[in-house]
Amino acid sequence: FAVEDIRNFSIIAHVDHGKSTLADRLLELTGTIDKTKNNKQVLDKLQVERERGITVKAQTASLFYNFEGKEYLLNLIDTPGHVDFSYEVSRSLSACQGVLLVVDANEGIQAQTVANFFLAFEAQLSVIPVINKIDLKNADPERVEKQIEKVFDIPSNDCIKISAKLGTNVEHVLQAVIERIPPPKVHRKNPLRALVFDSTFDQYRGVIANVALFDGVVSKGDKIVSAHTQKTYEVNEVGVLNPNEQPTLKLYAGQVGYLIAGMKDVTEAQIGDTLYLHNHPVEPLPGFKSAKPMVFAGMYPIDQSEYNNLKSAIEKLTLNDSSVTVHRDSSLALGAGWRLGFLGLLHMEVFNQRLEQEYNTSVVLTTPTVPYKAVLSSAKLIKEYREKEITIINPAQFPDKSKVAEYLEPLVLGTIITPDEYTGKIMVLCQARRAVQKHLIFIDQNRVMLKYLFPLNEIVVDFYDSLKSLSSGYASFDYEDAGYQTAELVKMDILLNGNIVEELVTIVHKDKAYSVGKTICERLKDSLPRQLFEIAIQAAIGNKIIARETMVVTSPEK
Ligand code: GDP
Ligand code: MG
User: Fold this and answer.
1) For GTP, which residues are the binding ones (predicted)?
2) DSSP state for residue 223 in the 8-state scheme
3) Which residue, 487, 425, 426, is CA-closest to 456?
């Protein structure tokens, strides 16, 4: 394929707006998969993806399409839509020149539509708006067109109205991909320059790196070097994803495909790494921001004899998901375990579910916390800790106030889109979460987009559920990293009959200590197994008890 006959594009959308269904139709229309089969989200390969109906890992497929007598190669990269995986979205985008921005004709623009649009916009990609589900009884594509014009400044004429489910107008989408997205800007005569935009681990073949070639050619037998590790490898196999791996002789600049070169784990094929030919070093491509864990939790085997099994399962799973960070940890009550860092709560749940389903393990997870920081107060301490600012990923290691100049808490900029009737209630909720309003606009007559700066710890636990329930499920939410702010933090101990339980230590904002302490004690009272003797449940800051519940002995139920 000549470079001008190649298009690399991605599909982005709010969750459930129909990316995967549209991908199925595009695969069928181009003959990549059989139309007779009952195709449902064929790119969602993992069990958890099928069960939850969400896409976790981005998947790539090469499509061949004949348009006006000419054969085109269209490389489609399906991406996850959920906030926790926006890291995957931006990675996929770096291999593309354009995106299909899918919006549900009934729900309209939602929080992740906005977040995903701006990822594409910042990467300077061509955006093709696609209004999906026009077959629905309540579909209102004209209203959605107006929202798209207002929020993204895209003329409503540019919108393509489709039903991915029924296949209506899907050919127009393929034509728009050819006409509106530019071919990749690459040079085949230059020496090889390939971007690793994803990698997976296969038990038998080792690391399979997904690559986009910006310059040159790569063939089986070539010697390649990783710009990141400077290690040299021999290429064992190259090919395209159709969507399953199909070996080819070579991959040329402009193509997206895979490469296997005896890399042992995904850390050797770092996402964002540049590969080049041995003896032909090139300027590395701009890499990616590395994924930053936002939520930490302790993980322990339910039974210590399962420790080694769990260890090997965690190792295997992180081979495939390098965005999870792993530190060894131990606790008096729970034994040896780990402290894991995740991109968000859904990411944590998905990881846990994959451990259980794919590796048959069962674990105890402790309450998630966010990465607080402490700025140390003296040169002596800085020398002792070997850094000025320490990150606290485990509340039990919260440094005492006497050592600290100030504490910092992570912030996020949250976007909420809601029908106007819920705006008042949502503002009250946000205020209770110590959030500061930054922005409010109407995106149509009765829908509002709000932006708030939130302390991250105020949204990790039950913010999303509260938002959903007070808006009858209509409000959507997304957030992005927004740095740190000074915060008055305190460590709160939980005591059972006067003894501190290390696993229950939490870090709270000073203003919230009483209410959080009270809630924790009440919840514990309800959830602890009944005992034959009285138990005092207390929350304390330093020596001061701030909340107390007593679990009394009750006679066994009849
Ligand atoms: P994704 O989360 O964006 O990948 O969304 P999916 O492709 O998994 O679709 C979410 C749900 O919407 C599924 O139940 C689909 O069957 C349904 N869906 C997708 N496209 C259409 C459409 O054009 N019309 C209707 N009525 N339903 C659709
Ligand atoms: Mg999907």
Assistant:
1) 13-20, 78-82, 132-135
2) E
3) 487
